[in-house]
Amino acid sequence: MAMMDAEFFAFEDIAWQTVPPPARHPVPAAYVRDLEVGDELTIGIPGRYFIDGQVLLRPEREVVEFSGDGALHESLAVCAPIHYWTWRASLSRNPVMQWWPVDYAWVYRDAVPPGETMTPCRAGDVVEQSSWLDRVRFDASQPPALHPVPAREVGALTGRRLRSRNAAGEWFWFVGVSESVAVDGDIRVHAVPSSHWWLHQVGYYPELQPQVRSIALHRLFTYL
Fold it and tell me: How far is CA 55 from the centre of its chain?
């Protein structure tokens, strides 16, 4: 009888679904030699501005003279994601690109090495700052470290980059294409892979429609 009761009250362990992803830290691209075409970069001018989500278009680096200072800079070929993904969908396109000094480019990397086990955290433990004032930086010399936050805590989700993992512990990136919606008694978010988000900006692709996922809200995180 005791064995029957144990089986009756047994339930699936879903703790892995709520384990937050690791923090993300900017690494100077000059020190990242394993960059590949399609990798994301943050570019900018220290002290002035930063632009996230740019994409590496060519594997080689070239030395380019910039009119702004007349100096030679080892540079990376970068383009906006919409140009990269439309080029991948149609290789006959000529993506708009620019050479950007490698010294003014960064690559975000996970703080926790792949395969390392992370301890589940309460939502309040994920964000280290307790006030927006604590997020004010001393200067704008480099992009900030990014910390994971449960998607349910950040407001609007449409167009926001989201991250979720599978049972094997692999992390995947998505972009929200809906707010949280009630589906068969669950709260879910419709999302697509990042590539499909950009392709949907330029046209309707029937073959992309099956790529719209319905993901439980508690499994989604974003970064601030």
Answer: 12
